[in-house]
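Hi all, posting the design record for the shared folder.

TITLE: backbone redesign
STEP: 1 of 1
STRUCTURE INPUT:
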């Protein structure tokens, strides 16, 4: 069961709502220890001085910021502590915004906010009011001597808070040379239609349980097999050549044909295929009509990021 990692209060104007913070995700990965191949014992790392290779004890280590290659400014812990943001144990809401106005590139890590102090009514009221308004709260808070920007939203009567990247932490697409000219590439109506049909044929409700980290599962299966004494192990097939030249139109047509044939073999294939053929035309018309309207929020965010 997750344990609370922070406690404080959501604060805006004169309202204070006591809450506890719980991690909303438990990231899973396979971790290995380093072993001596001869003895099988653990291998430990030592801290050594680059100049002469001598071991350095932790009490002799200081923090340095490299200002030029080989030149460091040394900052001691007391100087850093004096600059630490004040830990007021409050999540200070600054404003409420539309979720559609936040590009997902700004989201970092999610947390559940739970009511504290035995009175859930203020918490429930805020969650209900935010759900009704459709707005997301933008807030600041301090955790572990670091100031965070965060977005709080209501999900099924509960509050989930996502820490956010600061604007100057997001790399602008203009800084990536490989993206130059991408928006100027012309595609034909035929190509757009085929791509839209393929997207439509692959469209489905998002069900996160359908997706698994197959690599982690295979690694754990390998570990279990070796732990059980297996000696003959089967490896996966080699990956396809990613450098092969692809005829875009041929690939799109083949993909659409394969998806259409698969749907027609299904008991409801005829209806599904008909819906697939009609949908792209409707969507294309909608896109053409929308092209004269305001830009999408996510597009604005990407241009100004």
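Okay, here is what came back for every position:
SEQUENCE:
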């Amino acid at each position: 069961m997750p344990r609370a990692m922070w406690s404080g209060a959501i604060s805006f104007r004169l309202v204070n709502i006591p809450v506890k913070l719980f991690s909303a995700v438990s990231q899973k990965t396979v971790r290995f220890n380093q072993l001596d191949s001869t003895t099988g014992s653990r291998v430990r790392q030592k801290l050594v001085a680059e100049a002469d290779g001598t071991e350095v004890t932790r009490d002799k280590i200081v923090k340095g910021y490299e200002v030029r290659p080989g030149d460091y400014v040394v900052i001691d812990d007391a100087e850093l502590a004096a600059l630490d943001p004040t830990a007021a144990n409050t999540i200070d809401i600054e404003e409420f915004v539309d979720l559609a106005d936040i590009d997902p590139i700004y989201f970092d890590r999610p947390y559940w906010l739970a009511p504290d102090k035995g009175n859930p009514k203020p918490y429930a009221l805020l969650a209900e009011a935010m759900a009704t308004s459709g707005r997301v709260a933008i807030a600041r808070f301090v955790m572990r001597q670091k100031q965070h920007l965060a977005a709080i939203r209501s999900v099924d009567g509960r509050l989930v808070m996502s820490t956010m990247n600061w604007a100057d932490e997001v790399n602008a697409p203009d800084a990536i040379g490989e993206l130059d000219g991408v928006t100027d590439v012309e595609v034909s109506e035929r190509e757009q239609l085929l791509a839209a049909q393929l997207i439509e044929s692959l469209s489905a409700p998002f069900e996160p349980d359908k997706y698994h980290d197959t690599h982690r599962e295979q690694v754990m299966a390998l570990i279990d097999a070796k732990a059980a004494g297996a000696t003959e192990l089967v490896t996966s097939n080699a990956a396809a050549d990613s450098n092969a030249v692809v005829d875009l139109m041929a690939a799109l047509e083949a993909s659409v044909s394969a998806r259409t044939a698969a749907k027609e073999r299904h008991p409801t294939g005829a209806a599904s295929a008909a819906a697939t053929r009609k949908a792209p035309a409707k969507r294309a018309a909608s896109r053409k009509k929308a092209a004269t309207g305001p830009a999408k929020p996510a597009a604005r965010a990407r241009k100004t990021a």
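COMMENT: Residues 173-204+247-305 form one domain.
Let me know if anyone wants the other runs.
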